[in-house]
Amino acid sequence: MNRKQIRIILTNCLILLVLMVCPISVKAGDLSKAKAVNVNESVQGFCLTNQTNYYKFTTGTELSCYTLEASAGSDNNISIGICDDLEIKLISVPSVDSKGTAISVKLKRNTTYYIYVSPNNGQYAFYSFRITGKPDTADQLSEAKEIGIGELVNDTSCVSSDEDWFKFTTGGELSSYTLKAIGKTGTVSIDICDEMEKRLVSGFVAGSEGNSLTLKLDPGTTYYICVYPNNCDYAEYSLKITGKRDAPDTMQTANPVDITKTVKSDICTNDDIDWFAFDTDSKGKYTFSVVGIDNSVSLSVCNKKQTELLAINGVANSGGQQTVYLKGGTRYYVKIMAASPARYSFTAKKENFSIPKPAVKSLSGKNRVLAVELSLVEADGYEVQYSRSRKMTSAKKVQGMDVFYTINRVTKNKTYYVRARAYKIVDECKIYSGWSSVKKVKVTK
After folding, report:
1. Residue 9: what pLDDT?
2. C-alpha distances in Å from residue 26, one per residue of 55, 92, 163
3. Contacts of 231 (CB under 8 A, 6+ apart)
4. What is the mean pLDDT of the chain?
5. Would you put residue 253 in left (φ > 0), alpha (ψ -120 to 50) or beta?
6. What is the pLDDT of residue 25?
7. Most confident of 16-30, 153-167, 291-305
8. CA distance to 15, 94, 188, 203, 400, per residue, from 161 (Å)
9. 3-state secondary structure 189-216
């Protein structure tokens, strides 16, 4: 007996042994002889040409999303699928090799289904498969699964027509909400709607790199999230919704902030406007910087009359800067706008603005007139103050753009004290220098 004959004998023996433990091939329409298997059970088998092996399994009361994992032996190829008791195919994979495959399907609870296997392109084929199941999230809004703010959700869209519904309730203090989602295997689309199924967000797509969106929602209200596969049959995904307080939408309700520290927030919707208030402790030069993280944003600085003092329009990741001169001891407002939802940050750097002091160059008093001459400095104007008190109490003043001043109707035989300061007008501010040293003069006849 040569090696070839021995190999044929061993192969036939192996085939007979496998046939003893494999289900019998049944004719179409006769599923009564199908071998029963359990969910999560690993099954190994063998089938000949033109033979179809049938198995049956029954779904549970809690599971509705099932995955069929299958592979063929080395150099073998099989067809495999799932059908119901009328042999209507629910899923079918026409070609499975040794690399294997996995396909998911939604099935009715407490129902018997059938797995069929047949060889391709050969006289026989070895194979193995396993059917696994897990609970599936509710398929309609009325049965939506409740999730909490900040809760991480991991789930699966089983088939291309599958919809997973979740619901969450907004808090009393939070109004800005961010949804972050990742399509771990496959890409998912997400809708957000109210209880009337009015879409607030539609077709938001999340793939393996993840995606996020921010929107404003009413406090104490229930909203619904619908997740479904995006041009794929199966997708594992995760999502989380978080909330925070949104910046006030009006100047009257603006939150006070320290603009010398970075302020971060979000423009939630196209018509959203964020207002912030800040107080200046002293006059100075303020350089504002703003960055639109997701989309372009615009920043403006206003006074209490909503007069715009500074505007930085349409800046994105590269950011933008502008400078404005502001009064001291005054409240101002920052307004942020964007054409589409965007995250942003802004800050301001203050530089004190100094103007050189003028000096009282000469001072005389005669015929009830004070004559004052100031030293020339770089300024837009001067203010001269005079008083009969060394402490400059009850002082009077005159202003002008010249360095020569004549003050009439002073009292003769009285001593007057005089000082001066310069100013510049920048933006809406009149910025003063410090006072000069005080000089005195006695008015003569």
Report:
1. 52
2. 11, 18, 36
3. 187
4. 87
5. alpha
6. 43
7. 291-305
8. 41, 21, 12, 15, 81
9. EEEEECCCCCEEEEEEEECCCCEEEEEE
